[in-house]
Specification:
The chain has 248 residues and is α/β, with parallel strands linked by helices. The chain has two domains: 152 residues, Undecaprenyl pyrophosphate synthetase; 36 residues, no CATH class. It is built from ten helices and six strands. Strands 3-4-2-1-5-6 form a six-stranded parallel β-sheet, with helices on both faces. Helix 6 links the parallel strand 3 and strand 4. The chain is globular, with a radius of gyration of 19 Å. The relative contact order is 0.19.
Length: 248
């Protein structure tokens, strides 16, 4: 049985999030500049989005650029931004053909005018697509997002439109950039690093984590299937005991 056939289509995660890591190392192994790794990171983005669409996954969130990535050498930052803009522009037709809706989370205004405009254009064009929602995390960091939410709740509390007793976790979630997106059931990180690097910290409270040594440019549909099968073999208890999840 192929890996794809081993997937139980009735127990798919609704939302998969991925920390795409290892582009730089992939390029270095080939004696190339880091940007060569990023350029070769576009195909796996397309393959994974296609695989998710075929399976019927509802949301795929990709960590494409973190707040911390701004501190990389300026030439890498510029090259990454150009690559993102170019890719979004080039792939609008693919998004439309596959009815993929593009969304973005993060401090989007900080991307610069051209990138922001290109992104908004693609988001508007694809807004009514009904298959996969592809969420790009751009200039995103979880602590930034949580602090922004806290600030906005504080402002409303001071204005009197919110009472401190109204604040609970459901309400807090509504102030995050992911307000329209359910929490991911599965988070994948490539390249052998076992950390979450300021990504969706609030949203992954009960998420299953899957770490693989594969570097992002080598990641493909089969790797995604492997992660989904692994997820489906886990027992998600949400703080309960096994017998409560599986009563006799
Ligand atoms: C991490 O590898 C990867 C990034 C910071 C950029 C991810 C961007 C892409 C895959 C380009 C295309 C994306 C889209 C959404 C069109 P790294 O540079 O940290 O690798 P290293 O850890 O080996 O140095």
């Amino acid at each position: 049985m192929s890996r794809k056939e081993q997937i139980d289509l009735n127990r798919l995660p609704r939302h998969i999030a991925i920390i795409m890591d290892g582009n730089g190392r992939w390029a270095k192994q080939r004696g190339q500049m880091r940007i060569f790794g990023h350029e070769n990171g576009v195909k796996p983005v397309k393959d994974v989005a296609e695989a998710c669409t075929e399976l019927g996954i509802e949301y795929l969130t990709l960590y494409a650029f973190s707040t911390e990535n701004w501190n990389r050498p300026q030439n890498e930052v510029n090259a990454l931004m150009n690559l993102l803009v170019k890719t979004i522009h080039a792939e609008i037709k693919t998004l439309q053909d596959n009815k993929i809706r593009l969304l973005a989370i993060g401090d989007l205004k900080s991307l610069g005018e051209e990138s922001y405009a290109e992104l908004m254009h693609a988001i508007e064009l694809t807004a009514s697509n009904e298959n996969l929602a592809l969420v790009l995390a751009l200039s995103y960091s979880s602590r930034w997002e949580i602090v922004e939410a806290a600030k906005n709740i504080a402002i409303k509390t001071r204005e009197g439109s919110i009472e401190p007793s109204d604040i609970d976790s459901a309400m807090f979630s509504e102030y995050l950039t992911t307000r329209s997106v359910p929490d991911p059931e599965l988070l994948i990180r490539t390249s052998g690093e076992s950390r979450v690097s300021n990504f969706l910290l609030w949203q992954i409270a009960y998420t299953e984590l899957f770490f693989t040594n594969t570097l992002w440019p080598d990641f493909g549909k089969e790797d995604l299937y492997e992660a989904i099968i692994d997820y489906q073999n886990r027992e998600r208890r949400f703080g309960l005991i096994s017998e409560q999840i599986n009563p006799l």
